[in-house]
Amino acid sequence: MKAKFILLTAIIAGIAAWLVAGNRFAAIAGDQQSDQALRNRLTPLQYEVTKQAGTETPFQNEYWDNHKEGLYVCIISGEPLFSSKDKFDSGTGWPSFTKPLNPAAIQEKTDTSFGAARTEVRSVKGDSHLGHVFTDGPPPTRLRYCMNSAAMRFVPAENLEKEGYGKYASLFDKTAGAAREQPGPAGRHGGSTTRTVLGAGCFWCVEEIYEAIPGVVRVVAGYAGGTKNNPTYHEVGSGTTGHAEVIQIEFDPAKISYEKLLEVFWKTHDPTDPHGVAPDFGTQYRSIILPLDDAQLKIAEESKARAQSQFKKPIATEIKMLDTFYPAEDYHQGYAKKHPDDPYVHNVSQPRFERVNLSAILAQPAASQIQTKP
User: What CA–CA distances, in Å, run from 139 to 43, 73, 142, 186, 294?
Assistant: First the structure.
């Protein structure tokens, strides 16, 4: 009886082992089929990045210079990962973000593959390598999620509904952000304010100055004066678009006159240099006034004529009617205030702001009033 029991036990154990082995082989075969299906669906680069922790070439990938609004989703699972609202130009040549759209969609792991500890970022649902996160990003997070374009797919804001991401559409409501207004000519805004556009070199510097003037309601950094529609920062910086870095000023004429805004303008830079405003040179940094109507044009030309006595060289400032103002990318808006420790801001923007001496300029009557006094 004992021998029969031992034999029966052995048979059962053998069957169990066979079943386990069969399941293991089936799982391996299933994994191989799944992996092959993934290889068939992805490009070689996408597979190398997501499944082999590869890294694509900087400045030669799909999204590093993408400035459109929308979501970046996992190339494998489609899980939303990052928003264009949190994207910034890190100068690295890879798409960079200050934070994930949903922290639960990513996981972070310590990576020592190159002899130094780094923090790898992976997609949870897709179990795919995305890139790494560093602590040298801009405020408020101070983080830089440096991602591979090949690990993501971009869904433009206008396609969110039809691609099943409708719940995120409200993030890109065009009325939500003042800095991202639709491009158009500056002009009357509401019943009590008006606008104009000026350029005096780097818009980070000029924006900070005009934001401090009582009566100025809002300042938006942007591009104008050229021919290309919807230019990007990098395109304007190439000097091929004809656009200059400018600011659009919305102001209350009852509190600050257009003439007084121009008097500040002549004090913010050297307008006699046709090549730009030190330390930045190129047509994109030229001195330019872009009036919105004939009344502003006349005031601008008269102001320029009066200002000439302040300079030994001829004023090179270009004056022409505004065609279209294009708001700059979100990360340029309020840059000096957001990044006070930035070397350029600390060494150029802040000293320039201090040299202007706004209080003294604003305390004086308008120049036209002084000259026409009996």
Answer: 35, 24, 5, 31, 42
Has residue 371 got a pLDDT over 70?
A: no
Name the nearest CA neighbour of 323 among 244, 235, 215, 263: 244
Q: What is the CATH number of domain 70-172?
A: 2.170.150.20
Distance of CA 241 to the CA centre of its chain: 19
* 139 CB-near residues (< 8 Å, 6+ apart): 338, 339
Asked if residues 215 and 343 have their Cβ atoms less than 8 Å apart, the reply is no
Sign of the Cα pseudo-torsion (361, 365, 368, 374, in order): negative
- Whose tokens are 């999204």? That residue is 63
3-state secondary structure of 366: coil
- Could you tell me which residue, 286 or 193, shows the higher pLDDT? 286
The CA-atom distances, in angstroms, between 276 and each of 266, 287, 347, 370 are 14, 7, 18, 31
Beta bridge partners of 224: 244
The amino acid that residue 263 corresponds to is E
Tokens read off for 208: 């900070």
Mean pLDDT of the chain: 85
Q: Which residues carry out catalysis?
A: 146, 202
pTM metric for this prediction: 0.53
Please give the Cα distance from 119 to 305 (Å, whole number). Answer: 59
Check residue 117 and give its pLDDT.
86
Residue 21 pLDDT > 50, yes or no? no
For the record, the structure tokens of 176 come out as 């939500």
Residue spans of the domains in the chain: they are 70-172, 178-360
Mean pLDDT over 71-75 rounds to: 96
216 CB contacts (<8 Å, ≥6 apart)? 210, 249, 250, 251, 252, 256, 261
CATH no. of 178-360: 3.30.1060.10
